[in-house]
Amino acid sequence: MGNVKLAIRTTISFLLFICIYGFNFSAAAESPDHLVINASTDSRHEVTFNRDSDDACTQCHKDSKETRQGTHGEKVVAELGRDLKCVECHNTVGPNHRENASQVTKFSSAQSEIGTHKNLLDFGAILKATGNCTECHTSEKLQEKTWVHDVHAKKATCSSCHVIHADGEKEGMQALERKEQIAQCVDCHKDFNLKKEDKGE
Question: Cα 79 from chain centroid?
């Protein structure tokens, strides 16, 4: 009786081995030309995403679609060959975003606390806020644009001077008139705008 059980167990093990590994060997074997599937021409398993990945965002932030296209519209499409999606900048948004809105990257007012005449800088907040921008806007590209980027790299966030979600009409400092540019400088460099007696000199 023991020999019969051993024979059955061995036979079942052998059949399982053949079934499992035998098919793997046949799949790895070279296929005839007429059975080779060309992935570039066979579209049976292609998945096309029909839903816009920004739908969840634009259900509440209805104007975001248009404003995103303003600042990061045609130029980004030309460079990347595709639209920029919300999560490419707002990548910390979790499933409980409505209950826990602090997960969203806050760009405005992130760089400083108002002091007596000057702003007190928080370098950690600056680097965190500008980190999203500098993934695409590299330091080399920024240096080519203007010297202002070098001077303010660790002293201000990008949104201190640039409108992140512009309406298409204004895209940062370049679109501002000279007086508007100076007004933005004075926001931080307040003591240049004070009289000597106000400075305590």
Answer: 15
Strand partners, 113: 120
CA 52, CA 82: separation in Å to the nearest integer? 13
Q: pTM for the complete prediction?
A: 0.49
What does the pLDDT look like over 20-69, one tens digit per residue? 766 555 555 454 444 455 555 555 666 666 667 777 777 777 766 565 55
DSSP 63: T
Instruction: Name the residue among 121, 123, 103 with its Cα closest to residue 113.
Output: 121
Listed residue (149, 106, 113, 160) closest to 128, CA to CA: 106
Compute CA 155 distance to the chain's CA centroid, rounded to the nearest angstrom. Answer: 22
Select from 74, 134, 73, 138 the least CA-distant residue to 107. 134
